[in-house]
Amino acid sequence: MSIPSSLQRVVDRFERAPRELRVQALLAYAKKVPPLPDELVEDRSDLERVHECQTPFFVATRVGDDGTVHFFFDAPPESPTVRGFAGILHEGLDGLSADEVLAVPPDFYARMGLGEVVSPLRLRGMSAILARLQRQVREASES
Fold it and tell me: pLDDT tens across 50-104, in order?
């Protein structure tokens, strides 16, 4: 398992940041989550809920013919830490190959020091988001 360089850059930023700045960084990533495309706003059937999250969080994954993966997230603005994790995943994984996404270790965020600034319940939700993305990528790649 390995962390792709685009995600590693994000991990490194958090790892170097003092504890008190990690929450601010996480909140900054919440603003980086792109809005859903019109087709997902109009027809939400491709969005899958991540039930392990306290927050109503939905994700859709698309794998292009060239194997490039794109992620779409829907989380309320009132949940900035979960949106922040979605922003991290989007910045670090969107546009990569299916193999690169599937190779990300499930606990990659541990080095980021997020356990010092968010609750264990939130960390479980974050882990579930990554697991759901990887499952969707695996299923899309197999079909």
Answer: 999 888 999 999 998 898 999 999 999 898 989 999 999 999 999 999 999 999 9
81 and 28 Cβ atoms separated by less than 8 Å: no
Long-range CB contact pairs, 60-64, < 8 A, 24+: 60/136, 61/133, 61/136, 61/137, 61/140, 62/140, 63/98, 63/137, 63/140, 63/141
In sequence order, what are the residues at sequence separation of 6 or more whose Cβ sits closer than 8 angstroms to the Cβ of residue 73?
A: 33, 36, 57, 58, 59, 83, 86, 89, 90
What does DSSP say about strands 69-74 and 48-49: parallel, antiparallel, or unpaired? unpaired
The CA distances from residue 121 to 5, 26, 96, 118, in Å, are 28, 16, 28, 8
Residue 115: count other Cβ atoms within 10 Å of its Cβ.
12
User: What domains, with CATH codes, occur in the chain?
Assistant: 5-142 (3.90.1010.10)
List the structure tokens of 120.
Answer: 């264990």
Tell me how far apart the alpha carbons of residues 97 and 126 are, in angstroms, rounded to a whole number: 21
Q: Which residues fall within 8 angstroms of residue 6, CB to CB, at 6 or more apart?
A: 91, 92, 93, 96
Note the helical H segments in 17-119.
19-30, 38-42, 80-93, 98-102
